[in-house]
Amino acid sequence: MSSTALPRQIRGPSAFGGGLRRTLYLTWIIGLTEYRLTYFGSALGYLWSLMRPLMLFGVLYVVFSEIVDFGDDIVNYPMLLLFNIVLFNFFTDASTKAVTSVVDREAIVRKMHFPGMVIPFARVLSGGLNLAVSLIAVFLFLLAYGLNPRWTWLLLPLLLVPLVLLTLGVAMLLSALYVRFRDVAPIWAVLSTALFYGSPVLYAIDKVPEQYRQMLMLVNPLADILEQGRRWVIDPNADGAIAAAGGGAWILVPIAVGTAVCALGVWVFNREAPRIAERL
Asked: What is the pTM of this model?
């Protein structure tokens, strides 16, 4: 009796196919290209990277400060609002664009030796370039507003590192899940809106009732980043993330949450990568 050998299963493209150096190179090329194409054909071009957060800031400032009369007791509230909007917009814009990124790039994702992880990485890189331009404008506004430069401004990269890691984790997680579950896009649209109001963007953390303050700082890594940014950049007399979280030890919890999200994103994307091409 003869037997027919079954062909070995062919695995699809991996998450890091071709090595780390090639992955980083492709991320830079694709991310830079996406950044250049973002405002291609528009009259204002790259100025939109500045105009978008400034327009949102203007609307929110008029509504909450002039109409609702909110923020009068918050030191340098206009600058705090602008700073928070720029940081939060980086997170939401990069993660939202990453949701459909793999599906949008179906043609190159199907290639056997293309590292799939490049796609969400490139979306975050494109958002990071926008963030860099916006932060330059923010610091110019701070100086024009009358704030004196402080050495703590140099600590800003310490906030950007966990912010980028958190954004990368969410981007990888959402982009991998969207290939299988198209409900991810509308669900994330609702969750990101809820996260906007659940993070100290429009308000300072000390405005949150004390019984909820520590819980907010523990479960929302963005709250820690924004609140510590307030102390280092806007108001040196603000409590900061450590005091709001209830002590130095507690601040490790949100840091662990952000790290866990990033690790989970890498694990999920790496696990799904070989099967992504056949599901597209």
From this structure: 0.85
Q: Phi, psi (5° rounding) for residue 202? A: -85, -15
How many alpha carbons fall within 13 Å on the CB side of residue 47?
Answer: 6
Alpha carbons 222 and 14: distance in angstroms, whole number: 31
State pLDDT tens for residues 208-242.
888 888 888 888 889 989 999 999 999 888 887 77
Can you give the residue ranges of every domain in the chain? 20-279
Confidence of residue 6 (pLDDT cuts 50, 70, 90): very low
Tell me how far the alpha carbon of residue 202 is from its chain's centroid.
Answer: 17
**Residue 187 corresponds to which tokens in the numbers above?**
């669900």
Q: Please count the other Cβ atoms lying within 10 Å of the Cβ belonging to residue 35.
A: 20
Average of per-residue pLDDT values in the chain: 82
199 φψ region: left (φ > 0), alpha (ψ -120 to 50), beta (else): beta
Contact in structure between 278 and 102 (CB atoms under 8 Å):
no
Alpha helices (runs of H) in the chain, residue ranges in sequence order: 20-38, 48-61, 77-99, 101-104, 106-109, 118-145, 156-180, 184-197, 210-219, 221-229, 240-245, 252-279
Please return the burial class of 81, using the count of CB atoms within 10 Å of its CB with bins 0-12, 13-18 and 19+.
buried
Is the pLDDT confidence value at 14 over 60? no
Query: Is residue 15 exposed (0-12), middle (13-18) or buried (19+ Cβ within 10 Å)?
Result: buried
CA 97, 103, 104, 105 dihedral sign is positive
Of 83, 78, 51, residue with least CA distance to 153: 83
pLDDT of 7 strictly over 50: no
* CA-CA-CA-CA torsion sign (239, 242, 246, 247): negative
CA atoms of 175 and 187, how far apart (whole Å): 13
Instruction: Give the distance from CA 42 to its chain's centroid.
Output: 25
